[in-house]
Amino acid sequence: MSVDLEKILRPVDHEMPPFPPKHMTIASGEEMVIRQVTRDEIPDILIHVAPLMSVERDFYDVVAARVYAELLAYYRHRMQDEYVLVAQIDGELCAVVNGRMVDNDTGMSLHTLALRRGLRIGAHAFAAKMEYHMDILGHKEVLIVAESPIGFRRWMIEYKLEKRFEIPHELGGPPSWALTSEIFEKARGTLVIGRRPVPDALLAKAMEAILPPSDPPTPPEDLLAATRSKYDPTGTALILQRWMQQEKEDK
Ligand SMILES: CC(C)(COP(=O)(O)OP(=O)(O)OC[C@H]1O[C@@H](n2cnc3c(N)ncnc32)[C@H](O)[C@@H]1OP(=O)(O)O)[C@@H](O)C(=O)NCCC(=O)NCCS
Hints:
Blueprint: H1 5-9, E1 22-25, E2 31-36, H2 42-49, H3 60-75, E3 82-89, E4 92-101, E5 106-114, H4 121-136, E6 141-144, H5 149-157, E7 162-168, E8 175-180, H6 181-187, H7 200-208, H8 236-250
Parallel strand pairs: 5-6
Antiparallel strand pairs: 1-2, 2-3, 3-4, 4-5, 6-8, 7-8
The chain binds coenzyme A.
């Protein structure tokens, strides 16, 4: 008897209402749209996440590698109850956030990745995913961890998250923090902003195509300048990486 193994391997997603797109004016004066993407759009995001895996600064490498895996798993039906939101300015990809529904009460925040820096774009995208968990999915709390000091400052400190240290987070098992509905209500209107509906032309531009980030984080020009080199007395590993980088640039 033949067995359709794909039916066993592929998780069956629960029904999740969509995130209603929103827009906001960011500090640069530009208009940013935050919207949910479909599975079909994932490859258009992955190509912009991949280069960040070699940016050690601010833990972009770890976060990008994990985001890549989670988005690919979503695309290929190997992750359950995941959603992905993007922030776009004039179509340009500025941030990616994702998470998962654990059950009717609990959400799992996975990652926030800002592809344009210095404008709180990541903070706004994170707030949109909290809004999705609380207002749309009706969760009582969202479990969160930070992988970088900037992430810790943005989520744990700015929102004053509560400790749930008895719960290991899905992202590698560290102790979780929680955003509760009370914390979310306090943040509404300050940390959580945006307007709906998105004007037709603005939304159409965002839906038309996910355009490449205009100024994404990049590795340092000289890898020996990276802080890690001070732990490598010979600098050998970094010299090798620098040669590889140089070869690529010469081609
Ligand atoms: C964490 C993250 C999403 C926050 O995004 P953000 O809200 O848009 O904030 P930025 O990263 O642009 O800026 C954070 C701080 O670094 C400073 N900064 C760092 N690099 C900067 C740059 N190139 N230009 C301007 N400011 C920069 C900002 O001034 C800001 O300071 P502030 O907190 O006093 O406002 C983003 O830093 C990121 O994607 N980091 C890598 C992945 C990561 O750590 N994700 C979160 C996992 S918990």
